Every structure is written in C-alpha cells, then in structure tokens.
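Chapter review: from sequence to fold.
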Amino acid sequence: MQYDRVIWGKFIERPNRFVAQVEIDGAVETVHVKNTGRCKELLLPNVDVVLSESDNPNRKTKYDLVAVNKAGLGLINMDSQAPNKLMAEWLSTQGFDYIKPEYSYGASRIDFYMEYRHKKYLLEVKGCTLEKNGIGYFPDAPTERGIRHIHELIRAQKEGFAACIAFVIQMPKVKEVRPNVETHPAFGEAMVKAQRAGVQVLFLGCNVEPDSLTVDPKRIKGKFF
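The token string follows.
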C-alpha cells in the first residue's frame, strides 16, 4: 500500500489519542494520529515521524501521522488502517475464488471471508507495532473485542470453516508475534484455546518505507490454505 505526499517531522506531544503536535520545518502543526492506541513506547519527544498530507481541504488537520522511527529498530508504520488494506492487497494475489471484507459472523464482523474450491475461510487481522528484544507483542492494551473475535473463530473452525488469525507486523526485522500476557493475560489464554481448536496463526512481516508498507516474502510464517 502507498501513501501520497509524505514529509518528515519531529514529534512533540500527544494532547489526546486523536491528535499530536509535530514540528515541521520549524513550525508546530496539529496532526491526526492514525492509531488510537497508547503507542507510548513509540511516540517519544523529538523522535522522527512520517506524515501523509490529506487530500481533503475541509479537514481540521492537514496531515496524518503514519509512521515513527524507533531507535535500534527502524521505521514503524503505526497506521491502524494499514493492516487490513495490506491484507486485502496480499489476499488478492493468493488465488482465492472469492474474497469479502467485513464478513458478519455470530455477533462479530470478521475482517475477511474467502472461498477456494468450495472451502470457506475466515480471517481476522491484527496489526502489531509493539516490539521488545526483536519479538512482536499483541495487544499493547487490553482488547475484549479481540478476545470475542478469537472465540468466534474457534466456533467457526468447529463448524467447518478454515479459521486464521493473521498478524501484520508493521516494522522491520521482527518475524513473529507473541501474546502480550503482561498487558492482557486473557488474550494469551484465548490464543492457546484457538490453536488447540485448530485455528491457524499467520505472520506477515513487512517492509516499511516512508511512503509504503509491503509484505516481505522472507518474513511470512505459517499457512492456513
């Protein structure tokens, strides 16, 4: 996936989860943050950030904050919409007969429903931006919604679907994601139950550039079809 009209800036502060103050060419600009998560380990004073200029002249903010440079690791894409967009692009190259995003199942909307030769698939996508010692962790904050989706996938697997949880790793070098049990133990417990039930786990490592996010074929781990 591509971003248009990107520029660099210096992060100053984040008054709330929706906006940040960023220095651009010596001037302070209020920008939209495309991730409502905490991201406290990423958005530190004076770090370099990447901004994408909006094409909507009626917006209150001119720029979206889409990536941040983390010392010792490199550029991390923190756009929460990017994982599903990237997954849609990647799935379109995988030979499925039919792909439908935002599929209603049970009490949830699962990110993707696919078909291949009469086999039905359900895929839930999680973006990962939290890294410790070369390992990715999810979630960075408690997610009851995430647990509900896992239980839906367990039920779908029992009903004959091929169910999968895919982690889109929005940073370089990292090859796998582990449940962040320190932050949300219940998520780790749900993941164990899912894998025991046959739900597959897929990791998609990404190449991150200021103006793009692409799947790194060398960092794809796991299969479900």
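Two observations follow directly from the output. The first strand starts at residue 6 and ends at 13. The two ends are 23 Å apart (CA to CA).
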